Structures are given as C-alpha cells and as structure tokens.
Amino acid sequence: MRPLHPVLAEVTARIDERSRGLRGAYLQRVDAMRQRPPASQRLGCANVAHAFAAMPGDERLKVVAERAPNLGVVTAYNDMLSAHRPYEGFPALIRQAAHAAGATVQVAGGVPAMCDGVTQGQPGMELSLFSRDTIAMGTAIALSHDVFDGALLLGICDKIVPGLLIGALHFGHLPCVFVPAGPMSSGLSNEAKAKVREQAAQGLVGRAELLAAEQAAYHGEGTCTFYGTANSNQMLLEAMGLHVPGAAFIHPHAPLREALTREAVDTVLALAARGGCIGHQVDARCIVNAMVALLATGGSTNHLIHWVAVARAAGHLIDWSDFSALSAVVPLLARVYPNGAADVNQFQAAGGPAFVIRELLQAGLMHPDVHTVVGEGLAAYGTVPGLGAQAEVVRAPVAAESGDAQVLRPASEPFSATGGLQLLTGNLGRAVIKVSAVPADRHVIEAPARVFDSQEALQAAFQAGELTGDFVAVVRFQGPQANGMPELHKLTPPLAVLQGRGQRVALVTDGRMSGASGKVSAAIHVWPEALTGGPLAKVQDGDLIRLDAEAGTLQALVPQAVWDARTPARRTHALAEDAAHGWGRELFAGMRQQVLTAEEGACTWVPRSPLG
C-alpha cells in the first residue's frame, strides 16, 4: 500500500484547519450528550411511560429495568419509490433481529421521500432540493424523543440519504448504521432508453413507444440502475463506512439482502456497546474519502451540493475548490451510465464498491485509518459479502482483477487520470462541470448565447425549430432562491439531438442537472444566481460565451465597459408567481429566502454567510 497521496493530506489538513472552530464546538455538544445516563433513568416517569406505553410488558421491562439497548428506526418507506418499496417489511425483520440480540426496537418516525423520476420537468421538482432539509428535520423530530441507544436509517434515493445523514449528524452522539435495500434487476439498457428519448424529442416515435421503453427500463423494486444520485449515495456510504461492508448493490429479494439487514442490527448494537457514535466517525478523513469515491466513480454532480451540507452538519467546511483539487489526482476507475454503457448491476458484478475502495486504498488515495461502523480502518470495505452455511454473512477479499475491464479498472490503468470534475470560474461566476461523460472535443465550447428564463422556454424553442447553429443555452432563474433549484434533466434529450446533428451546443445554468445527465457540456450550479443579480442576469442573446473545461473558465466575452454598464435582467412577474404558488410551493417560501448558495450546500438551516 502506497503512502497517502500528498494532495489528499493537504486537502484534509486544509479542511481541518478551516473547520477548527466549528468542528470543535460540534464535538463538544456531541460529547456532552454522550455523558448522560440512559433515557429510562434520565427522563421523568411520565416521559418514560409515554415513550414505552405501546411496547409489550416484557419489552418495557427490558428497557426500564434491565436497561437493554433500545434502537430507533427512521424510515423513508413509501411505495411511490421503487427503491423504497422493499422497506415495508424491514421494521419487522429488524425487530426480530434485535429481540434475538436482547434489544428492543421502535420505529421512531418516517420521513418523506419523493421520486425525482416522477417530478422531472414538473412543478413538484421545485420542492425536490428542499425535501433534503425537510427530511433532515423529520429525522431530527424522530430522534428528538431521546430514548434511543442507536439508530438505523432506512433510505436510498436522491435527497433522502443526505437528508437522513444531516439529521443523524445533529444527533451525533448516537451510533448510526444505514440500511440499503438494493437496485432493481437490469431491464432495457440505459443507452437504449436514452436513444428512444432522443427519438421522441425529434418526433420519430410516439408516446406509446416511449412509454414502452421507459417501463422496460423501470420495471420493478429497487433503485433505478443508472449511476445517478441514488446509487452514488450508496457508493459514498460505503466509502464512509456507514453501511455494513458490501451492502450497497445487493438485489432487494436476494437472500443475502435479509442477512445484511440482520447484520446491520448486530452492528449498531456492537457499535453502541463500544461507545461509537456517528459524530466522531464522520471526521475530515471520512468526508474526503466520500469525495474521492464520488470522483473515482464519476458520480452525481448533485453531491457537490449535498456533501457540502453533510460536511457542515458534522462541523466541517468544504467547497468546490477541495473537490477540484482532489479531482486532479483521483483517477476515474468506473464507467457506469451515464459515464459508460454499464448499469450498477454490471458494476457490482465487475467488483463494485469493494474493488474501487481496495484500489484507492492501495494507491494511497483514501484514508485507511478511519472509524467505520464495523471498527477501525476501511480495509473491510474492500471485501465482498456472501452467505454462509447458516445463512450468516461471510466475507472474502474482492477479486484481484476486474470482472469487466470495460466497466471497472485498477488504479494503475484507469479510464482517465483525473476524476472528470472541473471547477469553472470567470465573469459568469463559479460553476462546476462533469466532463467524464462528455466527449473530449466538447470540453471547450465557444458560441453565441441563447438566453432562456425557464426550461419550458428552451423546450418550446426546440420544438419550433428555432435552435439552429452553434449556441450556448443560458437557462437562468433556476437557482435555490429563485425556485428551489430544480433538476433540468428534461433538457438533455433536445440538446443531445442538436449535438447529434453536428451543432456545437452547451448549457450554462444556475440550476441543477440530474445525476443521470451527461453527453452535453453543462456548466451547472452557477452562483451568484441570477435572481440575486448574479452575472447570468446580464447575459443577452448573441453574447459570445466561452466554456473551457480544460482551463477551468466560464466567460462572457463581452467588452468590460459594456458588461459593467449593463443592468441585470429581472425575472418576469409571471415566472415569479409560478415559482411562489401552487403545488405546495408556498410552504417552502421561508427556505427559498434563507437558503445558502449551491457551493455552501444550499443549506436552509444555517445563517447566510458573506458568500450569499
């Protein structure tokens, strides 16, 4: 195993120094909570009676008299999300496993979980980003009963895992284990699905053909099989040591899945017995390991927002410069759609997270000496779980060689020497671009601007045949304060169609793109956002825009005197009204007013800093 790469050491030290005061205050609060007596002795008699009133008598005796551990379950179960449908039966299984270990379990609460696949391009998507902090608050409410010795967190998809993790870190004195449910089986390939979408955008196939393709791709229980935000979540949790090792990508109905869920119960109990807690576990090294895992696998750009917020919840301050510095030295080891043709089941079969983590550790590109839910060190996450003779979980080292070199490669022979993430700066603000899925000849785009104040306006222009020649689509007023920063994934098919016709096109936006997006160069998360008078509000049709992912710049090539003299455009009254009313958007008005910038994690629960 090589020594730790100096850039990792430098970035980690920089985060530690930057976060010294915030992290110190956080750990003081965590340690003060850890020193208290058990809840059954600490709380008043009426509180205790209420807390355990619904338990059978023998279980109440265990908790109160015998001081048996009591676990809280926070679940994001619903049967709208295919990934979360399997969770319906998990509480009974968890309770059974806990009873066998002499412990008790209570479902502490449920949190909302929306499906971005349903809300893409719909008004509901404007609630999506803020659902993360809503989930964090729901997690806090569930754990606020303060009668738990540990927590099991049931969630997988986009905003759900970051929300659960942010909420749990605000109860950092508790040992916590995440319990995944796994991906659906492979259906229609992601490339074939994308092709049908592009054909539909051109009017070459109708709704019936498009629906058939979509239903062949999304066809059963489990996470969607592309490597978007949901599956990136699972990779990052493995890298942080917050799952039992190898739990991420086992099918919901595989016998091993049940065994891993039972093991999660035993794991959180063992963690509680040795005094472990999530607050101490998620230190700067743990956060850096997650960032490295994201870069090495070409994961979702959404995590350049979410993991900034996760880090902040644990008292760490990270920014896009940290991601960019790591990206320059972390190799790309995986090609999973949209960064390749494979799905997550093929990724798992080729070696999966275990192969990636083993390779990164050996290359000195991960901190090996971190705390995990199974003990000291990350090496255990380079193993693959299986079933033993008694249906117990047994583990073996991951294979030395990749099972498919088109999907997964060793650190010595990566797909790319860098992680494919680039920070962009210039007179249009700060933004990020994920180039791992974009053809190399599209990394630099210089073309006239076509300005749109909504994604619907761009789609209408495409349908009208107005998007001719080379251009950079500037889609503004899509930031957190404007309308909750919706994903603009619906723009991918039309822009991909134009690119396929030979036009040089790119997207620049203060909104987000889906974790499934790729192919077209996109400078996203631009801040300051247009609503606050950011530079995108100065761009006019015809301005020459240069997006240079190689140099890391994003510029409006407008004479300085002309640029300085421009008054930023204002959002129309109609668009402002649309963003403020209907579909429950009124309920999130306070979040839109309070939210921080994208680079600060779009947090709604901390005071706005000078950046905002």
TrEMBL record:
GO terms for biological process: D-gluconate metabolic process; Entner-Doudoroff pathway through 6-phosphogluconate. Belongs to the IlvD/Edd family. The keyword Iron applies. Keywords: 4Fe-4S, Carbohydrate metabolism, Gluconate utilization, Iron, Iron-sulfur, Lyase, Metal-binding. It catalyses: 6-phospho-D-gluconate = 2-dehydro-3-deoxy-6-phospho-D-gluconate + H2O. Catalyzes the dehydration of 6-phospho-D-gluconate to 2-dehydro-3-deoxy-6-phospho-D-gluconate. NCBIfam families: edd. The lineage of its organism: Bacteria, Pseudomonadati, Pseudomonadota, Betaproteobacteria, Burkholderiales. The gene is edd. This is Phosphogluconate dehydratase.
